[in-house]
Amino acid sequence: MGHPPTAAGPAIAVSDLRMRYGDKDVLNGVELTVEAGTVTALLGPNGAGKTTTVEILEGFRARSSGDVTVLGADPAHGDERWRARMGIVLQEWRDNHKWRVHELLAHFAEYYRPYAEPWNADDLLELVGLREQAGQRIGTLSGGQRRRLDVAAGIVGKPDLLFLDEPTTGFDPHARREFHELIHRLADIEGTTILLTTHDLDEAEKLAERILILAGGRIIADGSPDALARAAATTAEVKWIQDGRLQVHATDDATAFARKLLATDEGAVSDLEIHRASLEEAYLTLVEQFEAGEADAAVDQFQEVTR
Amino acid sequence: MNPTIHAYRTGLKRALIELKVSLTTPSDIMGTLFPLAIAVTVMLFLRGVEVDGAPVSLGSMNMPSLIGMMIVWSGVLGLLGILILDRTNGTLLRAKSMPGGMTGYLVGHIGSLALFTAFSVAVLMVVGLLFFDGLEFDSPDRWLMFVTVLVLGLAATMPMGAVLGALIDNPRNMGLVMMPFMALIAISGIFYPITALPGWLQAIGQAFPTYWLGLGMRHALLPDAAVAVEIGEDWRTLTMFLVLAAWAVASMTIAPKLLSRMARRESGSTMAARRKLVEQNWG
After folding, report:
1. Taking a C-beta distance cutoff of 8 angstroms, is the pair A48, A290 a contact?
2. Is residue A73 part of a domain?
3. Residues A284, A264 within the same domain
4. Lowest pLDDT segment from A2-16, A33-47, A164-178, A199-213
5. ipTM of the complex in this document
6. Which residues form the domain of A154?
7. Looking at CA atoms only, how far is residue A50 from chain B in angstroms?
8. Which residues, at least 6 apart from A68, have a Cβ–Cβ distance to it below 8 Å?
């Protein structure tokens, strides 16, 4: 690690964060804590406030109210030393496209020297798998290569905290898998705290040990992928046909319900189906409703399912 | 290691890299040399045109003026274009995301632009001395005048480009600068002595650096007798220095405030919004 741990405590602590644009509340009371050395995904539909939240954490945007501490400081007043301890990988970066790959990383490393010993450009290119592209102009890289260079640029100063915004949007499956491997390597070798935003549940499940779901301007679910999946799966939907009519019942104990149903139906029940909701379904329903403009209903229903 | 000094030093390294990148990118070289080549070609044809009272042809008289114009062009539009482009493609945001990054970015671009401008000026000088009769560049006082005007010109114009670049958020509004800019060249005595214009146009022209840079370069490069076609038959050396210095001080005073305001507002979402706007304009 490039930096000695300065302040004990979480890498990110946010309490009652609010953001208002004009008369529209984008964030209303976000609460979250990210422990150092963990990989956390901030998951949510487009327009849920993920980018706003992360930009506030990065110190790129002023908040309306709330307490925010990132790496021991308020991002609104973070100095250059604070800045040196974090890396930022944006969704789409097309900067410095006429520069050569190695040249860029070696130059960026220079900025961090007063604060920490940065990565050696050659070693870093090796780590992100761009050794062969070292002499290439950045504009000639493929989308996946460019993204890996962005990650390299984000971690060149050996940050304690790395922000990744929608890391694999537009990737083919192969590039996506390679990228996921790179993130795992980073988290394992360097112990870097990583906060990534994504609208893709699958990606969040693959990369993060903890998922925070942001919708309707607040965190509506928080837990490990397994815990969230279990929470979503506790409610089951039981369907059957009785007297020619479709019957539906939602229950937390489908087995007991089915046993009782079949014991008392006197043979009238047919086509019995038990359907356990998955996290994926619950999340997809949330996103659909969100996109249909029913944000509040979406949040309520999601919390109903994952409670 | 002092972080501020380190950021400046990193900026100087950046300047050299940016210069190397520009000089090895054909489109950058062509973008600069092509308009100059057209202007020089026109001047070549003007070598046969006499100006009343002047010891050299209109073509020879215009070569130093062209060098003066080139400094304004490169200084103002160069930095303006870089700032607008780099806000759209994220280069500026990247600088903001690194410690000392904004300092390094600005020092790097100002430095590389100054060097690139000096390179373009050198190319024009060589062409001028080789192909245009009557240009004189053989004494230390001319060298000193030339270098002083060049340096003062860069000091006056690059911060101006930074001010405009910080103010203009939408690339589409670059035209707002281009049109007045071209009009100003027309009334700055670059392609014909300013004395041929009506008095009120002369007055407007003399309020801006373009005229004075042209005048300074003519002073540095033309025979002394050429002063006959200037206003008041005088090189007005002191006035020229004062006007250019005033522009330099004024724009250097405003530029840092506007630049830091611009940097403060920069974030991933503002950049994405700007890019969307650009794509709409082009699509």
Report:
1. yes
2. yes
3. yes
4. A2-16
5. 0.87
6. 94-158
7. 11
8. A13, A14, A15, A17, A56, A57, A74, A75, A76
For B272, name the nearest residue in chain A, comparing CA atoms only.
A92
pLDDT tens-place string over residues A165-196: 888 777 788 888 888 888 888 888 778 999 99
| Same-domain pairing of A182 and A270 | no
Would you call B155 helix, strand, or coil by DSSP?
helix
Q: Which residues of B touch A84 (CB under 8 A)?
A: 98-99
Residue A293 belongs to a domain: yes
For B1, the closest of A61, A84, A113 (CB atoms) is A113
- Structural domain total, chain A: 3
d(CA A188, CA A304): 35
Per CB-CB distance under 8 Å, the chain A contacts of B267 are 55, 58, 60-61
pTM: 0.86
Answer yes or no: do A209 and A299 share one domain: no
- In terms of domains, do A28 and A122 share one? no
Question: What are the per-10-residue average pLDDT scores of chain B (283 residues)?
Answer: 91 96 91 90 91 90 95 93 90 92 94 94 93 92 96 95 90 85 93 92 95 97 93 94 96 92 85 79 59
A250 and A114 inside one domain? no
Are A297 and A266 in the same domain? yes
Q: Are residues A72 and A169 located together in one domain of the fold? A: yes
Same domain flag for A168 and A73: yes
Determine contact: B23 vs chain A, CB below 8 A. no
Residues of chain A found within 8 Å of residue B13, distances taken between Cβ atoms: 107, 110
- In angstroms, the separation between the Cα of residue B89 and the nearest Cα of chain A is 5
Chain pair A-B, CB pairs under 8 angstroms: 86
What's A185's domain CATH number? 3.40.50.300
Residue A71 lies in a domain: yes
Which of A80, A82, A136, A151 is the best mutation test for B, with the most CBs of B within 10 A?
A: A80
Judge whether A112 lies within some domain. Answer: yes
